Amino acid sequence: MRKHSVQAGRRAVPLVLTALTGLALVTGCGLPDHRAPAARTDGPTTSEPAVAPKAPVPSGEPLGPDAHVPDPGVIDDNDATSVSKAWAETTYGYDTAYDTSPHDAVLRGIRWCTERKAAAERRFRPAGGPGDQWNTWERHRAWTTPSVSSELEDDAPRDSETIAYRSLVVNGTAQGRDGWTGTGPRLNAYVKLVRTAVGKPWRVDDVTVVEAVTPPGQDGASASPGSSSDDFTQ
Predict the structure, then answer these.
(1) 122-141: average pLDDT
(2) What residues does 168 pair with on adjacent strands?
(3) Hey, is 155 helix, strand or coil?
(4) Cα separations (Å) of 93 from 11, 39, 135, 170, 181?
(5) Torsions phi, psi of 71, nearest 5?
(6) Rounded mean pLDDT of the chain?
(7) What's the number of CA atoms in the CB half-sphere (13 Å) around residue 45?
C-alpha cells in the first residue's frame, strides 16, 4: 500500500511541473494580466481629487451701444416653437468684441430655460478654450447672425400638455468689424421644452446639439476687398 502511494506521488510531480511551466509561458507571452493589483500600504493616502476643479469662465464686457446680438423681441410663451427659436437665436448670437466665449451668449439665452437648466448653465465649466473658429471671429472682432428654422421630424413625439420637442437648424453667418465675412454657427439642435400646466410658459429644459462639419478643402470664410481669409473648421 505504501509503495503504491509513493509511485502515485512520483507521477504527480511531472504534472505539477507541467502546470507551473504552462503558467509561466502564458504570463510571459505578453497577454494582459486581469488580476487586480494589490493595494499599496507603503505610502500616505489622501482623499484629495487627482484633478484640480475647472476654473470659472471669465465674463465678457457689458454690451455697448454698438453690440450686435440678436433681439427676438416679444415672444409668445405659449408657443413652444417660438420659445425654442428665440432660445437658439439668443444662444448662438455672439459678439466677440464683448463676449469672452460662446458661454456669454448661452447665459443670455437662459431666460428661455427652466430653472434647472439655467442653474446648470451657470455652473458650467469648459474643458478647454473656445476653439479655432472663435479665435478667427475674435481676430476680426466679428459678430454672428444665426438663422434658425424649425424642422418637422416624422418620428418626433407629439406634444403633450406639458412636454414638447422641437428640431432646429441653425445656419449662421459671421461679420467682422474690418469688413471680413465668414461662416457662423451651424448645427442641429434637438430641444425638449416643458411647462408646469396649460397656459404656463414653455421653457427649454434639455438640448442635444449636433455640430455641422466643414467639408474638406473649404474654410467657410470669404474675404472682402482689403481683408484676409482665415482657415477654420466647425
Answers:
(1) 93
(2) 150, 189
(3) coil
(4) 83, 52, 16, 11, 15
(5) -125, 100
(6) 78
(7) 5
What is residue 193's predicted lDDT score, i.e. its pLDDT? Answer: 98
Vertex 174: Cα angle to 173 and 179 (nearest 5): 130
In b/e form, how buried is each residue of 52-72, taking b as 16+ CB within 10 angstroms? eeeeebeebeeeeeeebbbeb
Higher pLDDT, 13 or 205: 205
Nearest CA among 185, 96, 103 for reference residue 137: 96
For residues 234 and 209, is the Cβ–Cβ distance under 8 A? no
In the numeric block, which cell numbers belong to residue 36? Answer: 487586480
Could you give phi then psi for residue 139, rounded to 5 degrees? -60, -30
pLDDT at 136 over 70: yes
pLDDT in tens, 189-231: 999 999 999 999 999 999 999 999 865 544 445 444 333 334 3
Give CA angle at 212 (90, 59), nearest 5°.
40
Q: Would residue 20 be called left, alpha or beta, if left means φ above 0 and alpha means ψ between -120 and 50 degrees?
A: alpha
Query: Grid coordinates representing 23?
Result: 503558467
Half-sphere exposure of 11 (CA within 13 A, CB side): 6
Q: What are phi and psi of 157, to 5 degrees?
A: -65, 150
Cβ neighbour number for residue 124 with a 10 Å cutoff: 13
Q: Is the pLDDT of residue 139 over 50?
A: yes
pTM, rounded to two decimals: 0.70
Residues 45-59: what's their mean pLDDT?
53
